[in-house]
Design goal:
The chain is α+β, with helices and mostly antiparallel strands and 158 residues long. The protein is built from one helix and four strands. It has one domain. The protein starts with 21 loop residues before the first helix and ends with a strand.
């Protein structure tokens, strides 16, 4: 016998509520907003850092390219005469405006190049060499500059 008897009046059970209360939704949105603000500030910071890194990379690349050009020259080339060398952007051998063309007519840009050559800088015991200090400077935001310097020695014979 499987009969059930109900004792007392029959009251319907309340159904569980489906969804969230307004307070729960507002708390979740506040937490989500704080997370978005943190991500946004990290994104802005990474953009700044990437911009600085790009500028440094441009300077290093231009300096290394010019150093290779100077090292490939003959020892007695006029570009390796003792003294300061400051060619203009149309004759310096680098792409100053970063358009893919080197030394085109009317080239202007934010990269400036110069080098100083010193004859026999290691002393009289080590003759037949030239010390070269190469510097690439870029102007950032019309006020700040970034400098990259490369020093190398050019010898008369190998």
């Amino acid at each position: 016998m499987n009969s059930r008897r109900q004792i007392g009046p029959s009251t319907p059970r309340p159904e569980p509520s489906a969804g969230f209360t307004l307070l729960e939704v507002m708390v979740a949105l506040a937490i989500f907003s704080v997370g978005l603000l943190a991500i946004f500030s990290m994104h802005v910071s990474s953009l700044r850092t990437n911009t600085v890194a790009r500028g440094v990379t441009e300077n290093v690349t231009a300096a290394a390219a010019k150093a290779e050009q100077l090292l490939a020259l003959a020892y007695d080339d006029p570009q390796l005469d003792a003294g300061l060398h400051e060619p203009g952007p149309e004759e310096d051998g680098i792409d100053n405006n970063l358009d893919g063309r080197i030394d085109e007519d009317g080239e202007r840009g934010h990269l400036n190049l110069r080098w100083v050559v010193q004859q026999d800088c290691l002393g009289v015991d080590f003759q037949g060499h030239k010390c070269v200090r190469l510097e690439v400077t870029s102007v950032v935001n019309a006020s700040r500059t970034r400098d990259i310097r490369i020093n190398f020695i050019k010898t008369e014979r190998l």
